[in-house]
Every structure is written in structure tokens, then in C-alpha cells.
Amino acid sequence: MTEHVTIIMVEDDEGHARLIERNIRRAGVHNEIIPFATGGDAVRFLFGSDGSGSVNSGRALLILLDLNLPDMSGVDILKRVKENEHLKLTPVVVLTTTDDEREIKRCYDLGANVYITKPVNYDSFANAIRQLGLFFSVIQVPATD
To answer: In this model, does residue 3 exceed pLDDT 70?
Structure first.
């Protein structure tokens, strides 16, 4: 992943957010990570004050998205991102505890690029995130239109 890609992390669990960032860094990814603990804050950042999404035009973003947020569903955020002309090419990695097959299919149908179920075990979770970081180090991310 090129250095100019900004990772938008939408994760309400502070412990998970720290673990995710720490293990992405351990994998050698040093891109900027902007954390959001609520869906509303992430939506305001992604779509801007006018709601159009043009505020991030020309930026290469990658979204790490939890589905279970306190104020809104991550599925709704995914849907909005993939329907937006400025953000639709932004890769979205769903990283959540939900392992329901219907929910997984729904996310892929809406345009999720990757769906990862968070392992319950700490070491397994840390390892999964390090592997995700290795994945980030080789993928190409387009700038938004």
C-alpha cells in the first residue's frame, strides 16, 4: 500500500482499536490511521459538511469498519460509501464480531472488499490483524474521484 493511503478505522471498542493499530504497525504499515469511535463521526469525516463526499475527492482512503456501532449500523455506512460517486472505489474492510452468513453475504452484496470476523481469543485476534497489515502492505488503493 502506498504511503499516501489514509486508513479510516471505525471501531467503538477502544481496546480493539488499540490492538488493531498496534498490530497493523507491527506488520510494518506506517500509514496515517484516523480512528472514529462512532459511525456518526466517521460519516461526517467521509462525507463532509455538505454530505456529498467531495471533501475526500483525490484522497486514497481505506476503511476498516466495525458493523456494531453505538449510534448506527456499519452496514448503513458501507451502503452509503459504496453508493457515493466520490467514495465508491474506496476499499472497505469489514472487521467485526458478527459471523452470521446472511450478514456476510449482505456486506459483500453491498460492495465490501473484505469481511473478517474478529477472533474471540486475544492472540488469534492480534495475529489476524498482523496478517491484515501484511495484506495492506501489498494492496493498491485508488484515489477517490
So the answer is: no
